[in-house]
Amino acid sequence: MVRALDIWLVPYLRRDKALARAPCTDLIVAVCDHFEPLHGADREIALGRVSSWRERLGHFQNLYRDSDGVGPRQTFFCPIEQYDEAVQQSLAEMCGETGSEVEIHLHHENDTEEGLREALERGKEDFRRHGLLCRDQGGATRFGFIHGNWALHNSHPEGRHCGVANELAVLRASGCYADFTMPSAPDRTQTRTINSIYYAGCTPEPGAHDGGIPVSAAPEGTADLREREDHLLLVQGPLGLNWRRRKWGLAPRIENGDLTMANPPTRDRLCLWLRLGIGVARRPEWRFVKLHTHGALPRNSAMLQGPTMEIFHDVLAEFASADRTGFRLHYVSAREMVNMIHAAEDGEGGDAGKFRDYRYRLG
């Protein structure tokens, strides 16, 4: 079916709205950028793209702060197969200045478990040379992951863009602390599980992440799954239908959390992200909004770095003010979002901003 509606529409219509109905005390926003500065470009152009982000993120941070005094930041998921030392060093310096972070992105085709494992180890080594990626409490290097072309765990219906039948297990064993690929709609790799934070079993069937165990706060949590090699945490962004377009006489649009020139962030989209209620069971007051973009593409970066994004930050500030909903706003990296998820899972409450380094730390 067109736009993969047959995969996710019924789960969307039947979704549990309990999280969405709960009052929101903490809005936790992460922008996960499928960042490919060398896409259709040479090194000089790529360095210019990084420099542009460096300037504009600094500008936004001079204008906006969240409830913790933290400015807007981005998580740059960089393709490890496109590694360039000079570009990566420039990006690392920009992250040091802005509090942004880098994680692993990978495009591959007809791969094997051994090939994937080698690519991940090489990518970790490359990034660590620039002081990137985080460590767990035992000192091991850990990373967040986004799959290129959406085909996580060999989920493309034609077997394209991956090839590794046991990809989740390889990711988990290589140090992946969470995957941030979904949603992928309108692509056919979309899962039936939507608007969720859950543990997927690392079994070899294609699309094994189609379902899993929702993350829940203590005392009925699934904290033990964090340590098990046969499960991987998946953090999904919003997926639904934006019916508000009907007021302009337009057909409903798929809302998948993608920030593009054609579909920029707006007040209406923010309201929908909140209503979709992505969170941790038994901790519904913490709302997790994981957005994505391809921020190195000129057509998107012009919007993301310009007045449209300033207007959206104004909207966020307005929604977080006491005379509106009165929630605490947290601009976070992907790593910080997962740390807050694990804090909620352990039964922590109150101000989510206290848990930015709860489990995984930079350095």
Explain the overall architecture.
The protein is an alpha/beta fold. It has a single domain, classed as TIM Barrel, CATH 3.20.20. Helix content is 32%, strand content 18%. It is built from 10 helices and 15 strands. The protein has helices at residues 5-13, 18-21, 43-63, 85-98, 113-128, 167-174, 267-276, 298-304, 307-320, 334-345; strands at 26-34, 75-79, 101-106, 134-135, 141-147, 176-179, 197-201, 213-214, 231-235, 240-242, 253-255, 258-259, 286-293, 328-331, 361-362. The strands form 3 sheets. Strands 1, 2, 3, 4, 5, 6, 12, 13, 14 and 15 form a 10-stranded mixed beta sheet that branches. A 3-stranded antiparallel beta sheet has the order 8-7-9. Strand 12 (258-259), helix 7 (267-276) and strand 13 (286-293) form a beta-alpha-beta unit. The longest helix is centred in the N-terminal third of the chain and has 21 residues, at 43-63. It is globular and about 50 Å long. The N and C termini lie far apart (46 Å). The mean pLDDT is 93.
Structural key phrases:
10 helices; alpha/beta; single chain; TIM Barrel; 363 residues; ten-stranded mixed β-sheet; globular; three-stranded antiparallel β-sheet
Reconstruct the topology from this structure.
Elements: H1 5-13, H2 18-21, E1 26-34, H3 43-63, E2 75-79, H4 85-98, E3 101-106, H5 113-128, E4 134-135, E5 141-147, H6 167-174, E6 176-179, E7 197-201, E8 213-214, E9 231-235, E10 240-242, E11 253-255, E12 258-259, H7 267-276, E13 286-293, H8 298-304, H9 307-320, E14 328-331, H10 334-345, E15 361-362
Parallel strand pairs: 1-2, 1-13, 1-14, 2-3, 3-5, 5-6, 12-13
Antiparallel strand pairs: 4-5, 4-15, 7-8, 7-9, 10-11
